[in-house]
Amino acid sequence: MRRPIIAGNWKMNNTIADTKTLINDLKPLVKDAQCDVVICVPYTDLATAVAETKGSNIKVGSENVHWAEKGAFTGEISAKMLVELGVEYAIVGHSERRQYFGETDQTVNARTKAALAAGLKPIVCVGELLEEREAGKTEEVVVRQTTEAFKDIPDDELVNIVIAYEPVWAIGTGKTATSQDANDTIKIIRDTMANLYCPKCAENKVRIQYGGSMNPKNATELMAMPQIDGGLIGGASLKAEDFSKVVNF
Ligand code: 13P
Predict the structure, then answer these.
(1) Span 116-134, pLDDT tens digits
(2) pTM for the whole thing?
(3) CATH (domain of 179)
Protein backbone atom coordinates (compact mmCIF):
# COMPACT_ATOMS: atom_id res chain seq x y z
CA MET A 1 0.00 0.00 0.00
CA ARG A 2 2.91 2.36 0.78
CA ARG A 3 5.01 2.98 -2.32
CA PRO A 4 8.70 2.39 -1.59
CA ILE A 5 11.06 5.35 -1.88
CA ILE A 6 14.81 5.11 -2.32
CA ALA A 7 16.72 8.38 -1.96
CA GLY A 8 20.40 9.12 -2.36
CA ASN A 9 22.08 11.64 -0.08
CA TRP A 10 25.22 12.80 -1.82
CA LYS A 11 26.34 14.87 1.20
CA MET A 12 29.27 17.18 0.29
CA ASN A 13 30.29 15.27 -2.82
CA ASN A 14 30.19 15.84 -6.58
CA THR A 15 30.94 18.87 -8.73
CA ILE A 16 28.65 19.93 -11.56
CA ALA A 17 30.66 17.79 -13.99
CA ASP A 18 30.36 14.78 -11.64
CA THR A 19 26.63 15.43 -11.34
CA LYS A 20 26.12 15.28 -15.10
CA THR A 21 28.07 12.04 -15.43
CA LEU A 22 26.45 10.30 -12.47
CA ILE A 23 22.89 11.19 -13.48
CA ASN A 24 23.39 10.15 -17.07
CA ASP A 25 24.90 6.86 -15.98
CA LEU A 26 22.02 6.38 -13.56
CA LYS A 27 19.05 7.16 -15.80
CA PRO A 28 19.02 3.96 -17.91
CA LEU A 29 19.79 1.81 -14.87
CA VAL A 30 16.79 2.99 -12.82
CA LYS A 31 14.24 3.71 -15.53
CA ASP A 32 12.11 0.66 -14.67
CA ALA A 33 12.24 1.14 -10.91
CA GLN A 34 9.15 0.06 -8.99
CA CYS A 35 9.73 2.75 -6.37
CA ASP A 36 10.10 6.51 -6.12
CA VAL A 37 13.71 7.46 -6.90
CA VAL A 38 15.20 10.64 -5.44
CA ILE A 39 18.69 12.12 -5.37
CA CYS A 40 19.43 14.76 -2.73
CA VAL A 41 22.40 16.82 -3.86
CA PRO A 42 24.47 19.85 -2.76
CA TYR A 43 22.89 23.26 -3.47
CA THR A 44 25.45 23.99 -6.20
CA ASP A 45 24.43 20.82 -8.09
CA LEU A 46 20.66 21.33 -7.88
CA ALA A 47 20.08 23.23 -11.12
CA THR A 48 22.19 20.74 -13.05
CA ALA A 49 20.45 17.79 -11.38
CA VAL A 50 17.00 19.19 -12.24
CA ALA A 51 18.03 19.77 -15.87
CA GLU A 52 19.70 16.37 -16.29
CA THR A 53 16.84 14.39 -14.72
CA LYS A 54 14.15 16.12 -16.77
CA GLY A 55 11.86 13.57 -18.44
CA SER A 56 13.21 10.74 -16.27
CA ASN A 57 11.78 9.05 -13.17
CA ILE A 58 14.46 10.57 -10.92
CA LYS A 59 13.34 13.37 -8.58
CA VAL A 60 15.67 15.91 -7.05
CA GLY A 61 16.01 16.97 -3.42
CA SER A 62 18.17 19.33 -1.41
CA GLU A 63 20.08 18.32 1.72
CA ASN A 64 18.63 21.05 3.92
CA VAL A 65 16.20 23.98 3.80
CA HIS A 66 15.85 27.06 5.99
CA TRP A 67 12.78 27.75 8.13
CA ALA A 68 12.32 31.41 7.19
CA GLU A 69 10.74 32.61 3.97
CA LYS A 70 13.56 35.09 3.47
CA GLY A 71 15.72 37.52 5.38
CA ALA A 72 19.04 38.03 7.11
CA PHE A 73 20.26 34.42 7.25
CA THR A 74 23.65 34.51 5.56
CA GLY A 75 24.50 31.29 3.79
CA GLU A 76 21.01 29.80 4.00
CA ILE A 77 18.53 28.80 1.29
CA SER A 78 14.73 29.07 1.53
CA ALA A 79 12.11 26.55 0.46
CA LYS A 80 10.76 28.97 -2.14
CA MET A 81 14.20 29.25 -3.75
CA LEU A 82 14.37 25.46 -4.01
CA VAL A 83 10.87 25.11 -5.43
CA GLU A 84 11.69 27.76 -8.01
CA LEU A 85 14.58 25.55 -9.19
CA GLY A 86 12.31 22.54 -9.63
CA VAL A 87 13.43 20.76 -6.45
CA GLU A 88 10.79 18.44 -4.96
CA TYR A 89 12.30 17.02 -1.75
CA ALA A 90 14.45 18.35 1.10
CA ILE A 91 16.29 16.36 3.74
CA VAL A 92 15.64 17.86 7.16
CA GLY A 93 17.45 17.12 10.44
CA HIS A 94 20.11 14.78 9.13
CA SER A 95 22.27 13.55 12.01
CA GLU A 96 25.31 15.30 10.53
CA ARG A 97 23.40 18.59 10.78
CA ARG A 98 22.36 17.76 14.34
CA GLN A 99 25.94 16.77 15.24
CA TYR A 100 28.01 19.48 13.53
CA PHE A 101 25.64 22.39 12.85
CA GLY A 102 23.53 22.77 15.97
CA GLU A 103 20.34 21.35 14.51
CA THR A 104 17.74 20.73 17.25
CA ASP A 105 14.33 19.09 17.39
CA GLN A 106 12.85 22.60 17.27
CA THR A 107 14.73 23.71 14.16
CA VAL A 108 13.88 20.38 12.51
CA ASN A 109 10.20 21.10 13.15
CA ALA A 110 10.53 24.67 11.84
CA ARG A 111 12.33 23.55 8.68
CA THR A 112 9.78 20.78 8.07
CA LYS A 113 6.89 23.26 8.32
CA ALA A 114 8.61 25.75 6.00
CA ALA A 115 9.28 23.02 3.43
CA LEU A 116 5.65 21.88 3.46
CA ALA A 117 4.33 25.42 3.26
CA ALA A 118 6.29 25.94 0.04
CA GLY A 119 5.26 22.60 -1.46
CA LEU A 120 8.52 20.72 -0.83
CA LYS A 121 8.42 17.16 0.50
CA PRO A 122 10.60 16.89 3.60
CA ILE A 123 12.59 13.75 4.38
CA VAL A 124 12.78 14.04 8.16
CA CYS A 125 15.70 12.19 9.75
CA VAL A 126 15.65 10.66 13.21
CA GLY A 127 18.00 8.21 14.90
CA GLU A 128 19.95 7.46 18.03
CA LEU A 129 23.67 7.87 18.77
CA LEU A 130 25.77 4.84 19.69
CA GLU A 131 25.89 5.87 23.36
CA GLU A 132 22.12 6.31 23.40
CA ARG A 133 21.66 2.85 21.93
CA GLU A 134 24.08 1.33 24.43
CA ALA A 135 22.23 3.08 27.27
CA GLY A 136 18.95 1.51 26.10
CA LYS A 137 17.58 4.90 25.03
CA THR A 138 16.80 4.20 21.36
CA GLU A 139 13.03 4.23 21.86
CA GLU A 140 13.08 7.36 24.01
CA VAL A 141 15.21 9.21 21.43
CA VAL A 142 13.24 8.33 18.31
CA VAL A 143 9.89 8.95 20.01
CA ARG A 144 11.07 12.39 21.15
CA GLN A 145 12.61 13.33 17.80
CA THR A 146 9.52 12.19 15.91
CA THR A 147 7.06 13.89 18.25
CA GLU A 148 8.94 17.20 18.16
CA ALA A 149 9.46 17.11 14.39
CA PHE A 150 5.73 16.73 13.75
CA LYS A 151 4.50 19.40 16.18
CA ASP A 152 1.67 21.45 14.59
CA ILE A 153 1.77 19.50 11.33
CA PRO A 154 -1.75 18.53 10.22
CA ASP A 155 -2.54 14.97 9.13
CA ASP A 156 -3.33 15.97 5.55
CA GLU A 157 0.40 16.69 5.12
CA LEU A 158 1.50 13.16 6.07
CA VAL A 159 1.44 11.95 2.47
CA ASN A 160 3.96 14.68 1.64
CA ILE A 161 6.48 13.70 4.31
CA VAL A 162 8.98 10.85 4.47
CA ILE A 163 10.69 9.82 7.70
CA ALA A 164 14.20 8.38 7.56
CA TYR A 165 15.34 6.28 10.50
CA GLU A 166 19.12 6.52 10.53
CA PRO A 167 20.89 5.06 13.56
CA VAL A 168 23.90 7.37 13.78
CA TRP A 169 26.31 4.53 14.56
CA ALA A 170 25.42 2.89 11.23
CA ILE A 171 26.15 5.92 9.05
CA GLY A 172 29.30 5.63 6.97
CA THR A 173 30.65 2.94 9.26
CA GLY A 174 29.80 -0.15 7.25
CA LYS A 175 27.75 -1.29 10.26
CA THR A 176 24.14 -1.80 9.26
CA ALA A 177 21.44 -2.29 11.84
CA THR A 178 20.19 -5.84 11.44
CA SER A 179 17.07 -5.86 9.33
CA GLN A 180 15.12 -6.98 12.40
CA ASP A 181 16.51 -4.13 14.55
CA ALA A 182 15.77 -1.58 11.82
CA ASN A 183 12.27 -2.98 11.41
CA ASP A 184 11.63 -2.91 15.18
CA THR A 185 12.73 0.70 15.59
CA ILE A 186 10.75 1.78 12.53
CA LYS A 187 7.72 0.09 14.11
CA ILE A 188 8.28 2.25 17.20
CA ILE A 189 8.34 5.34 14.96
CA ARG A 190 5.17 4.21 13.18
CA ASP A 191 3.44 3.59 16.53
CA THR A 192 4.49 7.10 17.57
CA MET A 193 2.85 8.46 14.42
CA ALA A 194 -0.26 6.38 15.20
CA ASN A 195 -0.43 8.05 18.62
CA LEU A 196 0.18 11.52 17.22
CA TYR A 197 -2.32 11.11 14.35
CA CYS A 198 -4.27 7.88 13.94
CA PRO A 199 -3.39 4.20 13.42
CA LYS A 200 -4.73 4.23 9.87
CA CYS A 201 -2.77 7.39 9.01
CA ALA A 202 0.43 5.79 10.27
CA GLU A 203 -0.27 2.56 8.42
CA ASN A 204 -1.38 4.01 5.09
CA LYS A 205 0.22 7.43 4.71
CA VAL A 206 3.55 7.45 6.51
CA ARG A 207 6.57 6.18 4.60
CA ILE A 208 9.60 5.38 6.72
CA GLN A 209 13.03 4.70 5.25
CA TYR A 210 16.06 3.05 6.77
CA GLY A 211 19.45 4.71 6.36
CA GLY A 212 22.95 3.71 7.45
CA SER A 213 25.39 1.72 5.30
CA MET A 214 22.58 0.47 3.07
CA ASN A 215 24.10 -0.97 -0.11
CA PRO A 216 23.50 -3.49 -2.92
CA LYS A 217 24.37 -6.37 -0.59
CA ASN A 218 21.86 -5.66 2.17
CA ALA A 219 19.11 -3.74 0.34
CA THR A 220 17.01 -6.78 -0.59
CA GLU A 221 16.87 -8.06 2.96
CA LEU A 222 16.12 -4.63 4.46
CA MET A 223 13.44 -3.88 1.88
CA ALA A 224 11.75 -7.22 2.57
CA MET A 225 10.94 -6.12 6.12
CA PRO A 226 7.29 -5.13 6.53
CA GLN A 227 7.94 -1.78 8.24
CA ILE A 228 10.74 -0.57 5.95
CA ASP A 229 9.42 1.51 3.07
CA GLY A 230 12.69 2.60 1.54
CA GLY A 231 16.23 3.73 2.07
CA LEU A 232 18.28 6.89 2.45
CA ILE A 233 21.59 6.01 0.89
CA GLY A 234 24.87 7.86 1.47
CA GLY A 235 28.08 6.29 0.16
CA ALA A 236 26.39 3.82 -2.19
CA SER A 237 24.47 6.64 -3.90
CA LEU A 238 27.70 8.05 -5.32
CA LYS A 239 28.17 5.17 -7.77
CA ALA A 240 25.50 4.70 -10.44
CA GLU A 241 25.77 0.94 -10.44
CA ASP A 242 25.54 0.58 -6.65
CA PHE A 243 22.68 3.05 -6.29
CA SER A 244 20.76 1.44 -9.13
CA LYS A 245 21.09 -1.96 -7.49
CA VAL A 246 19.56 -0.57 -4.31
CA VAL A 247 16.80 1.13 -6.31
CA ASN A 248 16.06 -2.14 -8.09
CA PHE A 249 16.13 -4.07 -4.80
P1 13P B 1 25.85 5.86 4.42
O2 13P B 1 24.92 5.12 3.49
O3 13P B 1 27.10 6.32 3.78
O4 13P B 1 26.06 5.10 5.70
O5 13P B 1 25.08 7.21 4.83
C6 13P B 1 23.78 7.13 5.28
C7 13P B 1 23.23 8.50 5.40
O8 13P B 1 23.63 9.28 6.23
C9 13P B 1 22.21 8.90 4.42
O10 13P B 1 21.62 10.09 4.79
Answers:
(1) 999 999 999 999 999 999 9
(2) 0.98
(3) 3.20.20.70
